[in-house]
Amino acid sequence: MQLAAEQMTAPARRLELVKSLPVAMGENGMQTVAQLCAERDISLSITDMNRIGRRASALSRKQDLQPVKVPCALFGEVNSYRADLLALAYEQIDAETL
């Protein structure tokens, strides 16, 4: 019983950890998903943030652009994308499910 309760609260603890760490920052007009969320004061799960990043990667590949890796305290490194493509990815995912 206690194990089940701990599993239910684990995602919440993980999100609190994410919120307590510095936001990974892109450079030269590039932006990370965490930056987008912080800029818009949006709180998303790691899963939703991952979906946005995958969509931004796909949009980038269509334009022959490569995401740029930037250091991240939680994951080691994360991708940063052109800000307009990342915003489009967020809007598309938001329209579908969020």
Task: Give a description of the structure.
The protein is of the alpha+beta class. 59% of the residues lie in helices and 14% in strands. The chain has 4 helices and 3 strands, in the order H-E-H-H-E-E-H. It has helices at residues 2-20, 33-40, 46-62, 83-96; strands spanning 30-31, 68-72, 76-82. Strands 1-3-2 form a 3-stranded antiparallel β-sheet. Strand 2 (68-72) and strand 3 (76-82) form a beta hairpin. Helix 3 packs across helix 4 (83-96). It is globular.
DSSP helix count?
Answer: 4
Helix content: 55-70%
User: What's the end-to-end separation, in Å?
Assistant: 31 Å
Work out the strand percent: 5-15%
Shape: globular
Order of helices and strands: HEHHEEH
Q: Could you report the average pLDDT, rounded to the nearest whole number?
A: 81
Number of strands: 3
Query: How are the strands of the biggest sheet laid out side by side?
Result: 1-3-2
Work out the radius of gyration: 14 Å
Low-confidence runs (pLDDT<50, min 5 residues)?
A: 1-9
Structural class: alpha+beta
Biggest sheet character: 3 strands, antiparallel
Short précis:
The chain is of the alpha+beta class and 98 residues long.
Key traits:
4 helices; alpha+beta; 3 strands; 98 residues; disordered N terminus
Topology:
Elements: H1 2-20, E1 30-31, H2 33-40, H3 46-62, E2 68-72, E3 76-82, H4 83-96
Antiparallel strand pairs: 1-3, 2-3
Helix pairs in contact: 3-4
